[in-house]
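Hey, resending since the last one bounced:
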Amino acid sequence: MNEGERVRDAPAPARPGRWIRAGLYLLLLAALGLGSWAAVRLIRGDGRQAIEPVTLPEGWLIIAPDREVSSLLLVGDTLYAGGMEGIVTVDVRSGEVTGALETPIPLVLVKSLVQSRDGKIWAAHQNGVTVFDGDAIRTMTTADGLPDNRVNALLKARDGRLWAGTFGGAAVFDGSSWRPLTRADGLLDDMVGVLYEDSRGWLWFGNYVLRGGGVTYVGPDTMGHFTVETGLAHNAITSIVEDQQGRIWIGSGALTRGGANVAVWQDRRWALTRSLGIKDGLAGEKVRLIYPDDHGRLWFCSEYDGIAILRSGDLQPLYRLTEREGLSHNEVKAIVADRDGNLWLGAHQGITKIPRAYLDRMP
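The structure tokens again:
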């Protein structure tokens, strides 16, 4: 693969209208039930809009263009990319796929990857949590205390403990087994899709359900919630992250609705202060991922319409990135930065590398 060349064998199939796709999703939800969100994600078509191939900007790379990527983890010069078909490794120096992680239990829909303090790689997937420790591989399930084998998220907390978010609640690993935290303990819903720890040590739990979901935040002897009733754009939470100013950003949405909210610490409590949508410069209704870069910008990744980049300070829209600009796919699900400041974007199809030089030239 040569830099500056678009990696694509043929134009993608035409995408139906958004409302048609929304109707199909609703039919699937009705048939499968709200608890089968992952199944909807597994069987839905790509739905890409046919566009003309473009020449990539200088230094950009497209890697594994036919592979779905939901999670990324960078360890040294090795990028671990997890998705629907398991985990592959990429050498960030060459941009080449170097191998795949083989396991006795199939790794289906790897949605989160973390490295623990002892150097082990942990993967969340539809059959549990798999731990890679050199040549040793162990998969933990409900038999080890997980509330559900379908695991959506992993978090390495600052105290070294590992958290998992599953379809049956969250759980924390004590070194030998998992201790659950569920709706009975105060979560809004047991379907935990997002986990985050902020700089103050508060833990944030996001539910991906259309009704009854939202955000639960837990601090010293305190638990609180945000829902659409208290100002959230949507109860289906997709992303939680802290920006350079200490604000907590919450991305949400499903089908053709959603947005982003910001929570700030004021008067010794968390409060929602602003909601962003398309009118404020976002690329699409549903926010898939929010990423603060090291240039003082916020990347709002949409489900269908690429990325809107806003200035963090005044939230002024600065830039849009889509397939036309060189993304491997408009739906970006994970972003990591390497030691040289290059960004690696995992998407519904493929991985895009954006070099530091390009990022430095952006507004």
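The longest helix spans residues 18-32.

Sorry for the duplicate.
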